[in-house]
Design a protein that fits this description.
With about 350 residues, the chain is α/β, with parallel strands linked by helices. It contains 13 helices and 13 strands.
Length: about 350
């Protein structure tokens, strides 16, 4: 582990004078324009020989914000400023994403959880409320499972790991030859047409295309070979042709002594919102919010509502306190009833 470095990306500096950001950096992976985004420093620190990029802002109780597959810390821009008024917010780029390194390395969910523990240790942060979106939700669950002594609360936003169902596009990324196909589909002329097409679908306002704009930004990032290779490794660790491989349902009973909040968009086209009911059944004490008029990115679709939910969740729940004997007793006892699973329909 070595010292940290502060970066100022030109797009963020420009955003300060115009009142918005227009991110076009190849280093960051994909293009995104966010209105009313504040000016954040992106810092880097080397952990285990690999560059880790992150944003750290605000003061107060610590929140660790974990993005989904193909995204980076900027997925949280609509809520970062508001959250920073009340919390110390750490929003990293997971390895293989954004401005973090993209080595040939461990891209498993447990590996990501280990990386987040080590990043927090380097930053001098002992305990956090972990907030994870999509893949980041799976990492958040794994972090809480591996490191309960460092987890105060768990907030899952349209997370993976609650059932097999997932979009066909993500399943396709795990098939043999997918890398070559994605490379061809993200070549410059094809990428332009794909971007225009996805944004046109988004502009229709139809709920089935609600997530098309965010998907277009992820699609652009796949033009970078290193990003593409990293995301394929990630996808193959959590998905196969039948759907999601990993599950938290068999360990959901462990949240008995850890506050849990689940937020989903009712019109999610990536992971169906009915998985929220699985969370409700397997963790009866959890707060579950399904937001109408929202897709796979509820924190972007309704940022003010999302911040309100998260602030209330933190304010109304005491932080979990790890007790080794109690944890051992819960493990020995196991769940009170068999875990409910989503059965995929044809």
């Amino acid at each position: 582990m070595t010292g940290r470095r502060r970066l100022r990306f030109p797009a963020y500096a420009a955003g300060k004078s115009r009142g918005r950001t227009g991110v076009t950096s190849r280093t960051l992976g994909y293009r995104r324009r966010v209105t009313r985004a504040p000016d954040f420093d992106v810092e880097t620190v080397v952990v285990h020989g690999h560059r880790r990029a992150y944003v750290k802002s605000g003061s107060g109780p610590a929140l660790l914000l974990l993005h989904g597959m193909g995204c980076d810390h900027r997925t949280w821009l609509p809520v970062l400023s508001r959250l920073s008024r009340h919390f110390t917010v750490i929003a990293p780029d997971l390895l293989g994403h954004g401005a973090s390194a993209k080595p040939r390395a461990d891209y498993s969910v447990p590996g990501y959880a280990n990386g987040m523990r080590d990043l927090l240790t380097v930053l001098g942060i002992d305990k956090v409320t972990v907030v994870g979106h999509s893949l980041g939700g799976g990492v958040a669950m794994q972090f809480a499972y591996q490191f309960p002594e460092r987890t105060e609360r768990l907030c899952l936003v349209a997370p993976g790991g609650m059932g097999p169902e997932v979009s066909t596009l993500l399943r396709a990324m795990t098939l043999p030859g997918a890398g070559l196909a994605v490379g061809a589909l993200t070549s410059a002329p094809v990428r332009h047409l794909g971007r225009v097409g996805l944004r046109a679908l988004s502009a229709t306002g139809l709920s089935c295309f609600r997530d098309a704009r965010e998907l277009s930004q992820i699609y652009e990032g796949l033009a970078d070979r290193a990003t593409r290779a990293a995301l394929q490794h990630v996808a193959r660790g959590v998905i196969d042709w039948r759907g999601q491989i990993i599950t938290m349902n068999d360990r959901a009973y462990l949240t008995e002594h850890m506050p849990l909040c689940v937020v989903w968009g009712a019109d999610d086209t990536i992971i169906p919102a009915r998985h929220a009911e699985v969370a409700r059944a397997n963790a009866p004490s959890a707060r579950v919010e399904v937001l109408p008029d929202s897709g796979h990115f509820p924190h972007r679709d309704h940022p003010e509502r999302f911040v309100k939910i998260l602030r209330e969740f933190v304010a109304q729940t005491p932080p979990a306190r790890y007790h080794r004997r109690r944890w051992a007793a819960v493990l020995r006892r196991g769940p009170a009833a068999p875990a409910l699973e989503v059965v995929e329909t044809a």
